[in-house]
Amino acid sequence: MLTKHPTSAAIDITHRCNLKCVHCYWWKQDHPTELDDGQMIAFLKDLKRKGLRAAILYGGEPTLRPEICKTASRIFDSTLAFTNGLNGFPVLKNGQWILSLDGPEDLNDMLRGEGVYRQAVENLKKASRPPIVHMTISRLNQDRLDDFAGEMMRLPVKGIGFSFYTPDKKIDDSELFIPLNKRDQVVRRLLSLRKRYGEKIGFTPAMARQLLSYGDFVKWNRFSACPVSRRVRCFKSNGRPKACTYGDSADCSRCGCAAVVAYRGAFKPFDYQTLRVILGLMVPEFRVAKGNDIF
Predict the structure, then answer these.
(1) Cβ–Cβ < 8 Å for 11, 235
(2) Residue 164 lies in a domain
(3) What angle (nearest 5°) sits at the alpha carbon of residue 230, between those of residues 226 and 235?
(4) pLDDT digits 0-9 by tens, 183-238
(5) 285 vs 146, more confident
(6) For residue 294, what pLDDT band results from cuts at 50, 70 and 90?
(7) What is the Cα gyration radius of the chain?
């Protein structure tokens, strides 16, 4: 985490998905043919040999290739795998599942498809290790944060993380993107949830500072200043590189990436609370404090 050299790989391990979510950046990208199992495993091993010790598995939907997910968790020292939850949560050796949900059942299913919330929550309850829930905040769900957080606190989740919808420079997605001055208000609401529920809300004051238009946002909202682009190498499902997990045409000037926010929040300057957020992601056995015990 402290080096300026690449340490991690973010890989689209499949070009397929069993959903078509309204706000998903992946559907705006090209979907090249995916490497077959043997090729993908060899590719992952080669990345590890080149010094990339952690992996983030994307798609499409990674659980459409469960054996690749399991193998990746054995190859890398730490693995994060994102999922919509419909296929359950296969056991990962050194891995943490991230379940993408975007609001209470009615709103989530409007964005992701009928019945998705109920199936994902049913599988969540059966997971061998509590997943982290991730919510992408957009204009479509920004008013339901309190409802959603309250629901998640009643489920066996490790915590909740948040990112903000990042626009694509090639399309008009004004119906999704929250203008920066209005995003500031949502950021402050996330901090109020942190005060209410404690460390299970994976969002700290130091992280908030990275997103606020009057904070540190202008210090990193361009590709040349992005700390994640220096440390994470991103790849398409055919093994070829791409600039960012959000795609080659992501609008960095309006970025809402949780990875950048967490990294800068933890180290620019050092912040212990945010470091614990990162440890919760990277170390499957790491447990967050209950309630407000850490304050």
Answers:
(1) yes
(2) yes
(3) 105
(4) 999 999 999 999 999 999 999 999 999 999 999 999 999 999 999 999 999 999 99
(5) 146
(6) very low
(7) 18
Residue type, 243: A
Q: Supply the pLDDT for residue 29.
A: 80
User: ∠ CA 55-61-66 to the nearest 5 degrees?
Assistant: 70
pLDDT, mean of residues 83-90: 98
Looking at the domain assignment, is residue 295 inside a domain? no
- Domain membership of residue 248 as a residue range: 8-282
What residues contact 145, with CB distance under 8 A and at least 6 apart? 135, 137, 186, 189, 190, 193
The H or E element that residue 229 is part of is: helix 227-231
Which CATH number does the domain housing residue 180 bear? Answer: 3.20.20.70
291 prior amide bond cis, ω within 30: no
Q: Classify 181 as helix, strand or coil.
A: helix
Handedness of CA 111, 183, 287, 146 (dihedral sign): negative
| Counted domains in the chain | 1
Secondary-structure percent of the chain, ordered helix, strand, coil, rounded to 5 = 40, 15, 45
Q: Which residues partner with 234 through β-bridges?
A: 10, 242
Length of the chain: 295
Tokens of 245: 């997990």
pLDDT exceeds 80 at position 4 = no
Is pTM beyond 0.90? Reply is: yes
Phi, psi of 270 (to 5 degrees): -60, 135
> What element of type H or E holds 222?
none
Q: How many CB atoms lie within 10 A of CB 46?
A: 11
Helix or strand or coil: residue 87?
coil
